[in-house]
From TrEMBL:
The chain crosses the membrane at residues 21-45. The keyword Transmembrane helix applies. Keywords: Membrane, Transmembrane, Transmembrane helix. InterPro entries: TAT_signal, TAT_signal_bac_arc. This is Twin-arginine translocation signal domain-containing protein. NCBIfam families: TAT_signal_seq (TIGR01409). PROSITE patterns: TAT.
Length: 198
């Protein structure tokens, strides 16, 4: 048997479950439609870079921040992408960044799977494509848009389990530092202080 045939005959290692894959499949299992690829882009996206590119941008945003619809709604993802499109409409450099970035992403998806990015159905496959561009300005644009648009949005904090900043109530020591329920209770601040003073 030739080396090439032996390599093909060997069993493939099991695919490791990534955090993103876990979050997406969990959302689907609980009734979420995160993995659905039919995105209603035409109803919300402006035509700055074209509807197909806007659809790809929405898919990238959802794959980069894969929360289930009970946490982050499709409308929230759409709002984030629409803000990027509005910026692109006012700034030619941003428009080129997004247009070229989407075209590059689709070229990578076609080279790997023979399909445009939005038609690659396996979430781990799309994740692999995105990992190949994660240091690019295009991907970083999505990263920071999502970080600020999702995690800095007070209306989403309850769904994300974040109680908000505690600076106005004296800090987390007095508001939320010890209210987690997934660890056994530890010593109180007074008990810790007593140990230090011994």
């Amino acid at each position: 048997m030739s080396p090439d045939l032996r390599a093909e005959a060997r069993p493939r290692p099991a695919r490791r479950l990534s955090r993103r894959h876990f979050l997406i499949t969990t959302a689907v299992a609980t009734g979420g439609a995160v993995a659905g690829l039919a995105l209603p882009v035409a109803a919300w996206a402006n035509d700055t870079i074209g509807t197909a590119r806007a659809e790809t941008m929405l898919r990238v945003m959802r794959d980069t921040f894969p929360h289930g619809p009970q946490i982050v709604s499709l409308a929230t993802y759409q709002r984030l992408v629409d803000a990027m499109l509005e910026e692109a409409a006012a700034d030619e450099a941003v428009k080129m960044l997004l247009s070229d970035g989407v075209d590059d992403l689709d070229a990578r998806a076609r080279a790997a799977f023979g399909l445009p990015f939005t038609e690659v159905t396996e979430d781990y496959a799309r994740e692999g494509i995105l990992r190949g561009i994660e240091t690019t300005p295009f991907f970083q644009k999505f990263r920071w848009a999502g970080v600020f648009g999702i995690y800095n949005a007070p209306d989403l904090w309850p769904a994300l389990g974040y109680e908000g900043p505690a600076s106005d109530v004296g800090g987390f020591l007095h508001a939320g530092f010890s209210d987690i329920d997934w660890l056994p209770p530890g010593p109180s601040p007074e008990e810790l202080l007593a140990q230090v003073q011994r």
